[in-house]
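User: Before I run my own analysis I want an independent prediction to cross-check against. Here's the chain; please return only the structure tokens and, at the end, one sentence I can use as a sanity check.
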Amino acid sequence: MSVWPFRIEQEQAEKEELIVHIHFDAKYKIENLQSIFGKDDNLEEEKEEQKKGTYKRADILKMHTYRDAIRRTAGAYVLYPGSVSDNKQGFHELLPGLGASAIRPSKTNNGTGELKKFLHEVVHHFLNRASQREKMSLKTYETHKDTNINEVNEALPEAYGKNRNLLPDETFVLVGYSTKPERFTWYVENKKYVFRMDETKGSLELNNDVVNAKYLLLRRSGKETADDLFKIISKGPKVFSTTQLNKLNYPPSKNPKEYYLAIEIEKVTDMEFENVKWNFKKMKKYKSIVDAEHNRYTKAGLPFTVTLTELMQVVVKK
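Assistant: Structure tokens:
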């Protein structure tokens, strides 16, 4: 059984990972659920049955093959002439799943009622546009649609615990600029990085990459490379007035603005980033900024964002 959105063709649904297959396989040599799913304590018995050629639990392994080996398959189910049905969820929802439905010859109760109920549950599941399966489908599509496969061989923190979502292609780094040493000292001591929020030169556009940035790399005036990497610990930029910044002894600007944006930062402690330098001038984003309109020097201090993948591609080799 294949399901996809009503207004598109099957070919488009396959390209966009919107089609879902559910397999049903009739196995009328099976008598009961134990033959399919077995028990945890009868492993030796199963091995003996397998040697004799009477091992029926292999049928559920075939269901695993359907579900795991055939792309876009969300469920695989055995139909057998027993009396008990059992559907096992892969995670927290009906699909993905494996199971068995009892369909048997009978004048009064042949099991099709339970199967019909299950199919209604499947329909209800597909109507849920906030399902986890929908999220997995989108993630699969986004992962495989891009034919440009990046490679990061530099050491990075392992993706577990608090870093579980540390995917280099989806982790953004804000590359900022410190115009003078006292500014840099203030950033470190106050654990804040301040940038403009108006339309003038030096302002930062608050796009999705900036708001979701996980790291801040600070470039310092006069340096050819950068080695000051911070972790962004605030959930988003906060607005600060010039009056508030003055109370915090923020080094004044020649042309101060009424309001600024600030993010909270702390120095990274991951050993993978210790003693690492980045040649930011090799970044495509930096080159595009300094070469724009041939305004090389006035634009060199503009902040911008890159992915962690792009950052690690300009590591200075020792």
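Sanity check: The first helix runs from residue 10 to 15.
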